[in-house]
Sequence to fold (206 residues):
Amino acid sequence: MSEKRQQRDGKQDGTGGTGRGGGPRKAQEIFDATLDLLAEKGYAGLTIEGVAQRSGVNKTTLYRWWPSKGALLGAALIGGRQLDLTLPDTGSLQGDLEALLRTAVELLSTPPACDIAISALGAVTHSPELAGVLRDFFADRISREQPVFTRAVARGELPADADPMLLVDLLAGAAWLRIVLRQAPVDEDFVSRAVHTVLNGACTAT
Fold:
């Protein structure tokens, strides 16, 4: 479909083009509606029709930009406000990682973000397409968080060959296991202890 045709069709239903994201002008409303419905109904209950009704955008427009609900969900996970990420800059790697982990703990503990995350992860086992979507989501997250590790290398807190993805996986994995799988309480010092252990190890220095 040509760019002029996309712009014309967008004007007909009031969406228009975003320019930056290459999607309809009401993309944010669409993403929010998608994630809200995912939180309420799970992946099985998420439909293009439901998103169209809630967002006020024609169903044909949604199908034009996203040919399946998996593709739409992938865009919503990255662009939606419910899982938004504010990059910390505390002046130290320990402080930055604690801030990131606190954000993860809050997201996994507070609706609707926790329902969105759990529903999306649970649906992966039933949808190869969604597995690819989540890979893209986590790749986007690690790219957003990269400045934390770039600054840490510049300050001499990390070696240049450190693996940021491994550090993030260890910390995020601890939050997922504690909160979602074990459904155990999160102690006040969980975040600081987890970050300290990942950065410094659990063994007594010799």
